[in-house]
């Protein structure tokens, strides 16, 4: 007589403070794919200092074994990693039960897809779903070549806020098909100001103070730095500006000691992909960003 199939026993729990090594050992299986989560844990810990909704790391245990991790930021953004991609679906089911309404889902495609399939059973839908590729540039490989700086890229400061604010809004509208100035201009400006004050925005202006290039650093830690928000004004594209500025930005980041730089790009953005690969970025894995329809 054949024994009946017994489903695996799964448990989802919040990872508490003091469990850094447990989290790190799991995510360090792929420090490139998990750079954002590893950086978050290094900078902010495994849990907020008080009971708040600022963020939470969730652990999925299968038969008592840690098998998947989710980082939820402000109940709006989730990142995922899983030993078996299908186990990510348990987080989606859990969020539906708890009524968690996200705005973004960002991670490797193998984890996002099963999560999203389970999460949409709660009646939610995607406003925009981007298939992407995660790229990585390793420090030693980059510095083995003789790179000379050709731009004046530098950290943005408070005097740059107006130019960076407009460039960030235009980049955001291009990327998400949503104008942040129409949705909540004040909130978006505060977000840009915070990035500048925390030294996470780099800019290149010409001698007439025209902004040629800007990029943000969305994660930075001993594991590396992740670049996002890369923008060159449309009228200046195709002139090699982004290639020169991004190359100099990577050089500046490596000189600060970061072992690698990562970024992800939409699969249909051929011009950006050419820039990244020309600098030396290598494809790492399929990535995906889902923007949730919240209204």
From TrEMBL:
The entry's keywords: Transferase
UniProt GO MF annotations: acyltransferase activity, transferring groups other than amino-acyl groups
CDD domains, A to Z: NAT_SF
Listed name of the protein: GNAT family N-acetyltransferase
InterPro entries assigned: Acyl_CoA_acyltransferase, GNAT_dom, MshD_Acetyltransferase
Regions crossing the membrane: none
Organism from which the protein derives: Microvenator marinus
Keyword Transcription among record annotations: no
Residue intervals of the N-acetyltransferase domain: 159-295
């Amino acid at each position: 007589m054949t024994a009946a199939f017994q489903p695996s026993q799964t448990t989802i729990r919040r990872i508490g403070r003091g469990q850094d090594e447990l989290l790190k050992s799991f995510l360090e299986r792929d420090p490139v794919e998990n750079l954002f989560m590893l950086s978050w844990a290094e900078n902010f810990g495994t849990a907020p200092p008080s009971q708040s909704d600022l963020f939470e790391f969730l652990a999925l245990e299968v038969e008592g074994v840690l098998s998947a991790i989710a980082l939820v930021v402000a109940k709006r953004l989730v990142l995922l990693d899983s030993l078996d991609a299908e186990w990510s679906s348990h987080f989606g089911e859990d969020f539906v039960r708890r009524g968690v309404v996200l705005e973004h889902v960002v991670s490797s495609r193998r984890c996002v897809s099963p999560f999203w399939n389970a999460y949409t059973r709660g009646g939610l839908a995607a406003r925009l779903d981007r298939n992407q590729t995660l790229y990585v540039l390793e420090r030693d490989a980059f510095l083995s070549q003789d790179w000379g700086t050709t731009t004046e890229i530098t950290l943005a400061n408070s005097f740059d806020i107006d130019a960076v604010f407009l460039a960030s809004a235009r980049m955001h509208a291009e990327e998400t098909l949503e104008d942040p100035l129409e949705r909540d201009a004040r909130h978006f400006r505060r977000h840009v100001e915070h990035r500048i004050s925390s030294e996470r925005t780099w800019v290149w202006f010409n001698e007439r103070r025209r902004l040629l290039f800007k990029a943000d650093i969305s994660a930075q830690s001993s594991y590396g730095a992740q670049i996002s928000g890369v923008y060159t004004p449309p009228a200046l594209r195709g002139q090699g500006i982004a290639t020169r500025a991004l190359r100099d930005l990577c050089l500046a980041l490596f000189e600060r000691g970061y072992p690698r730089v990562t970024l992800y790009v939409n699969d249909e953005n051929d011009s950006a992909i050419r820039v990244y690969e020309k600098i030396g970025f290598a494809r790492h894995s399929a990535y995906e960003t889902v923007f949730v329809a919240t209204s």
